[in-house]
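2024-03-11 09:14:02 INFO receiving multi-entity request
2024-03-11 09:14:02 INFO entity count = two
2024-03-11 09:14:03 INFO echoing inputs for audit
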Amino acid sequence: MKYLGIEPQKPKIAVFDFTGCEGCQLQLLNKEETLADFLSAVEIVCFREASSLCSDDYDIAIVEGAVSRNDEVKRLEKIRETAKVVVALGSCACFGGVNRLKNEFDLKAANKEVYGKDPKETINVRPVKDIIPVDIEIPGCPVSKAEVESLICHVVWDSPFQLPVYPVCVECKQRFTTCLFDIGQMCLGPITRAGCNAPCPAGGIGCWGCRGPAVEPNYKSFFAIVKEKGFSDIELKERLNFFGAFGEVNVS
Amino acid sequence: MLFKTIKKQDFFDVFLPDTQCIGPKKVGTNTNGKPIYQFLPFSSFDEIDLDYDTTEYSAKTYFLPYKETLSSFSFKDNDWTQEIKYRTRPRVIIGLHPCDINGLIKLDKVFEKTLFPNPYYITRRQNTFVVGIDCKEPCDGGFCSSVGANTVTHGFDLFLTDIGDRYFVKIGSDRAFNALQKIKTSEITKKDNEIYLQIRNKFEGSFEKTVHVENLPNLLDIEFESDVWRKWGEKCLSCGACAMVCPTCYCYGVTEHISMDFNKSDKIKQLYSCNLNDFAQVAGGHNFRPEPATRLKYRYYHQHRGFVESFGQPMCVGCNRCGRVCLAGINPTDVISDLQREQKR
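2024-03-11 09:21:47 INFO inference complete, emitting structure
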């Protein structure tokens, strides 16, 4: 079928895992009601959670996880050479994710704490875009399957792919969630990119910012509000650093 | 207008058990120990509290849903079909305050009594039985009396005022008159009128917040470049919460959602806010209002200037939901007072 004169593509997709929990890859296989259609819309040539086969002939590379070893750097460079489109999937790939907490510590000490007498080769955690150019980012811990499906429509039909520019507050309001600040909790919702449909605040947990900043967040005003509500700089910093998505934002 | 009185306990017998009812439900308590209410579906009348002061959200979403499928397309071979569905299932909303009913009257002007009536809105509005109730005292920061939204004479089916053990009832529609046949009603006595007016006068005199909006459209034009906008704009988080809770903000965006089998597509309308970063971004990427201060200004311009030009009254009903929801403390009475001070300087 042609739509608006556009011939659909059946792109070859490869999924690669780097430093992360593989939860975002699992999300690719989630949402059973559309899973069969999802899998037949594309040709998956490499995806270890779905098939043991793996080919180097692919158009789109979906990269999950952050980079935390030198061999990962080389692997990423190879992927970039092969793929026409590189997609960073999830908060680890986009920002470094929870792994990035390691960067706050001395690398040797961190290594010893985790691996004891059997240390591993390790480097500071970096997001994918620090190593190679990334074409599309889908943030989230885990990613939303709806956004992945929208990406698939984009690569098959060339339909627009856009993440919401606005913060999580819009989605909280649209599902009748009481503002977490009203009940005495901190929430990064006002500066974090929407698109997740705000499940954490709806469940009574303030936003931890896994999707990274909304477009042009008003940090200055937001930090002043957080302090006025009685939260300390340390609490705020810890939350901002949790997924590594807010980089070097200065809270004072 | 027909007036009656009814015993409070009789009132709830008016409604059919199989009709969906929406009312003010307590959903929690805020850090100041005050109850938080929302308009939500209920199945038993003891789940709602008609003495509530205000709700966190307006009841707008029952008429203008935050998300609504405008049309669905199915593709087959080289052809396509379109399906449009309107929500027609009857619903009862109980406990709307005058601000919210005035909000509906304003939305009626935009979506019903206009050159391009909106069938999605009209079917919901006409199939909703609206029961209003007078406030007992002004809500936190509410300034409805300043914008003429503290009383209401139409736009509802029934309107109640609590006069002790009974409700003083205004009957606003044929269907409300018919519905009341099921219960015992009493004619209004002279004494009832006195009690009613006494209660209302006491209420009218108890507003702490007032703001003069008479010359506001002109003032807004004069103060277009005012520093007041920068001052409040610097605080604005551009989060859109104000527009989401507002009973009258109706701006929206439409996006296309293609099904994963590529055989269907939905056109989905989502309520948006003029404070959101890309509200005025156009094809090609240019953003006409890139600064939060400009976007905030235009929200006030639509509410207090543009709408007045089109409909002869402000869009704002003075419920101050936007002021209460705003983490940055931006609220209409302070912003408007600031502008008025600016002019006097």
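2024-03-11 09:21:48 INFO post-check: The CA atoms of residues 48 and 181 of chain A lie 42 Å apart.
2024-03-11 09:21:48 INFO post-check: Chain A has a mean pLDDT of 94.
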